[in-house]
Amino acid sequence: MEICPKCGLPTPACVCGEIAKTQQQIVVKTEKRRFGKINTIISGFDDGVDVKDITKRLKMKRACGGTVKNKIIELQGNHKSHIKPILVSMGFNEDLIED
May I ask the CATH class of domain 11-98? Predict the structure, then answer.
């Protein structure tokens, strides 16, 4: 059985990911791109969080396209008002998410 190097617990019982989620300072903003298109930018993710998995879930919940670049999530369209409740349901701290 493998042991997590950060918390010292066995890998199935590891809580590092949950602890990392509650300490993230996340910023959600919109940005106007070429041809007047609006993208929602979600930044502030540190190590210990699977940004690709979060992106996949956000794209599924909001039914939009998106990508990850340098730990910054870009979603196509204006989803700023809908992102915070989704991130809170994933386990992120509501007080540390800045709109």
Answer: alpha beta
